[in-house]
Amino acid sequence: MINFFRKIRQRLLTENKFSKYFLYAIGEIVLVVIGILIALSINNWNEERKERSIEKRMLEELVENLEFNTEILKNWINANLKNDRSSEIIISALEYKLPHHDSLNNHFSKSLYIRKLSLISEVGYESIKNAGLEIIQNKQMKKNIVDLFEGSYQVIKSKLDVVTYTNNEAMRLQSKRFMRKQGLKFEPYDYDSLFNDREFINTLNQSRDDRGWLNNSLEDGLEETQIALQLLKDELNK
């Protein structure tokens, strides 16, 4: 092809057809420019396809990530609600000075304990961060995802540090006041003394309050997780 154009130029010069030569030269330049633009367009199109393929794969990974977190948060919330029920049973028994019975042994440990299940997964989000958040085209969806992982999930993590301290204090007190029976049953060494045991009662109330405080953030995190998850699924189904 290059030899073909070279022969045309040489013939025009040989025949002294300078005006036609210049027109031809301009036409050749235009063709070259058009060829470059077409090549760039094809290259950009290919790059765009690659980016959209990477985005799709990462969004699918993030869907799995958030589905996992949804189950974790639901189980976590429900576990704390069950422990709340145990707290209410023990608080009521002590307040009304009810006689000890074996069924209370099922609730003593749960009443003091704040459940801490598997940590929330951030695998999918970390992959997107490593690739660059700009790979997500949907701006609203990107904002929701960032707010979820950098906001709500971080609040939960910070609260876990607080409830870890509460749990440690509760476990320390439990070892002093109770003997472990079969399974997770704990029987007080001196049940009647618990009626006026301010340290135990304060720890019991603190555990209940911190549990509710944590659950508020878990419930917010669950709601935001479900919203982000639906946005992701809608985007992938387009």
What does this structure look like?
The chain has helices spanning 2-14, 18-95, 105-112, 123-131, 139-177, 198-236, and strands at 178-180, 186-188. It has 238 residues and is an all-alpha fold. It has one domain. β1 and β2 (186-188) form a beta hairpin. α1 (2-14) runs antiparallel to α2, α2 crosses α3 and α2 packs antiparallel against α6 (198-236). The chain starts with a helix and ends with a helix. Residues 1-5 have low confidence and may be disordered.
Task: Label this structure with key terms.
2 strands, 238 residues, disordered N terminus
Topology:
Blueprint: H1 2-14, H2 18-95, H3 105-112, H4 123-131, H5 139-177, E1 178-180, E2 186-188, H6 198-236
Antiparallel strand pairs: 1-2
Helix pairs in contact: 1-2, 2-3, 2-4, 2-6, 5-6
- Strand residue percentage: under 5%
* Helix segment tally: 6
Major sheet:
2 strands, antiparallel
Give me the strand/helix succession: HHHHHEEH
**Which spans have pLDDT < 50 for at least 5 consecutive residues?**
1-5
Which descriptor suits the 3D outline?
A: rod-shaped
Q: What is the rounded Rg?
A: 34 Å
Biggest β-sheet: strands ordered side by side in the sheet? 1-2
- Give the tally of structural domains: 1
Chain-averaged pLDDT: 85
Tell me the helix content: over 70%
Number of strands: 2
**Secondary structural class:** mainly alpha
Distance from N terminus to C terminus (CA atoms, Å) equals 44 Å
